[in-house]
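Can you give me the bound-state structure? Components:
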Amino acid sequence: MWTGKGLKRFINSSIRAVETRAMKNYLLNLDQKSLQTIREIGEEAERKKRSAYIVGGVVRDIILKRKNLDLDIVVIANAIGLARDLAKKWNGKVTTYKEFGTASLETSEGFRIDFATARRECYAHSGALPHVQPGNLSEDLLRRDFTMNAMAIAINPDCFGQLIDGLGSLTDLQKGVIKVLYDQSFMDDPTRILRAVRFEQRFSFKMEERTLSLLKAALQKKAFLNVKPPRYFDEFKNILHEEDPIKCLKRLHQLGGLGFLNPRFKAHLQDLNLLHQRIQETRKHLFYRQKDWWLIYFMGLMANADCRVVDRVLTKFSFTKNERVGIQQSLKANEVIKKLSVRQLRPSQVYQALRYLTGEMILYLRVMTSTRIVHRRIDQFLIHSRYVKLYINGEALKQMGIVSGSSMGKILEDILCLKIDGKISTRQEELRAASACLGKFSGSIC
Ligand code: ATP
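Here's the bound-state model for the whole set.
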């Protein structure tokens, strides 16, 4: 394991080596468009007499030949200025974050590039947000989570495409080893526990022995309690966004890492295998392809939890109102599925069972069951019934002599149900149906 000064010296010597040695160009694998964009960033940096580098996970993915839609650029001093100049040149849009020395540039083609001024970081205590100061490239690489994410590729014209690896990162990456940069790493930033598990499972890598014991020690000390819950949960959400979150959840569970949700939370991960399988199948349908599934996995994770535990989880971590409502509804998923499974059911009855459920809860129901008829009913609701609207409204009913109030709402709902069931379709038919309803609600008629 490297320590402070030795590590810095090693990285600095590697950076100098870039200037003196002819090395492999690591960017040649990229498509022409990305290559051209990166060249232009490097040329603009050169004009401004600055050094610019591609850094972090993007470098890892370039070496692994994996698609990565991000482009993270570190600039030695004033990244914001460089991003602004490029935005002008490309007619792009730039958003700056002065306090962090970062900028995000969106090109006119919708491609996003993040620029950051090289920085060094130190932690006042475990779990605190780091104290940030401008720094050099070696310091910027040293602040990173794992060796495999701590490489840079130079993009200035004279050293374009050359890899900067002062930590043996390339070897670790090739061997499939996840290694922290220093012993205190997981304690300084416990979100790295989740990142380690995520990368280990995503790439089928192995944690280096010492890294694994440091991770276990951090979990034993409940280091996650030092991090603000929403921040820790954001990193957890990244796990649920993975192609196969179940692998990560199982590993995390095996390491005792799910306790951050609640000390009394008991995971029943075997049920999630089936959920995952069904999500994969559902995703193949065009209609469900673009959906975001993290919340569905989370609903599955909470499915067997005690409702008091779920309540605490909902209070502790930050969810949007819609997410919170969806999670609460998901605890009753079996009841709704039962309702949707009965033999004879009109589309309007399906509509009534689903109309107040959140979109994610409905998706959750869709993957909770393999019953075809339930799938068909949910699909019909999502594709058709929920969009059915009436031509008439309360005004039309008033003109027919019905005062506003609950009866008016009930009449409109009954007419809507008739329309969903295909019994009526035109405005005339809606008005006729309204008159027919009048008798039922004679108490409210003027
Ligand atoms: P992904 O493919 O999931 O996006 P990534 O490695 O690109 O993975 P990001 O969260 O986009 O992950 O972070 C970009 C880079 O920033 C990382 O590769 C790493 O170098 C650094 N980084 C991110 N989070 C941390 C952290 N908690 N501690 C240290 N470095 C971090």
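A couple of observations. DSSP finds 22 helices and eleven strands in the chain. The first helix runs from residue 4 to 20.
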